[in-house]
Amino acid sequence: MRYFIGNWKMFGVPKSINILNKINSFYLKDKHQKKYRVFITPPYTLLESYAKYFKKKKILIGSQNCYQKDIFSSNTAAISPYMIKSVGAKFTLVGHSDNRSEGDTDLMLKNKVSLALRNNLKVVYCIGENKIDKKNNKTFSVLKKQLSRVLDRKLNKKNIIIAYEPVWSIGTGKIPTKTELNKTIIYIKKVLKGIFKKKNISVLYGGSVDGNTVGVFKEIKEIDGFLIGGASKSSKKFIDIIKNYYR
Ligand code: PGA
Question: How many domains does the chain have?
Fold first, then answer.
């Protein structure tokens, strides 16, 4: 199974649902539809209405983040995994570099992952090295820490997806080389096997994925799908990624 996950970030108002309707229509007619799934993360403000609208359709609606405490608390503006689940969302991203750079620590991320899973949400856990880590040849050690400090064997691995997103690639148009990326994805899968003693956790790539760059990525068979930022805000650009991937 492949995943095409759109991360809308701070984008979207109620009528933006048109974008998803177009993606859904494409999906329904696509002869490759059995090979992949489409997930989208609208902002919190649209979570309930979109989740209801797409309940019986093929697009899965999820959240961009969740809080590290569950049920209800006195933290202003916080949204718990329980609250996310209660409006019909099916998954959440955790650990996106935008949130790590705003202060998410490993302990916070560990809580988020386990609470989201406990609420039966799928978790798309994001990891990735920054430009300095890369320059200092620290990519593998950074990724290993991000995985081993947050994930553990007792978690429900069936509901975990990993998104590898080099921070220096997000929104910049810069992408890793094929050799580099292939090695990194294989390394991540090796670390995951060490943690979970299982081989089959999906690992996605994210960072400047569009209709052109996907041509490079599709040659790397170990990549199980994509986390797509900028290009997910346009139905045409998002559909182009899927079309070019299966071309
Ligand atoms: P991008 O963002 O596709 O715009 O590089 C990816 C992300 O932040 O998830």
Answer: 1
Q: Which stretch of DSSP H or E encloses residue 226?
A: strand 225-228
Residue type, 81: P
* Distance of CA 226 from the midpoint of ligand 1 (Å): 10
pTM (global) more than 0.90: yes
Q: 93 lies in which domain range?
A: 2-246
CATH code for position 193: 3.20.20.70
How many whole angstroms from 225 Cα to the centroid of ligand 1? 13
d(CA 241, CA 231): 9
* pLDDT score at 200: 87
d(CA 245, CA 20): 19
| Phi/psi of residue 61, nearest 5 degrees | -100, 135
* Residue ranges of the chain with per-residue pLDDT less than 70: none
Cα distances (Å, whole numbers) of residue 233 to 40, 79, 137, 192, 236:
10, 23, 33, 31, 9
Tokens of 50: 């979109």
Known catalytic membership, residue 165? yes
d(CA 78, CA 47) in angstroms, rounded, equals: 15
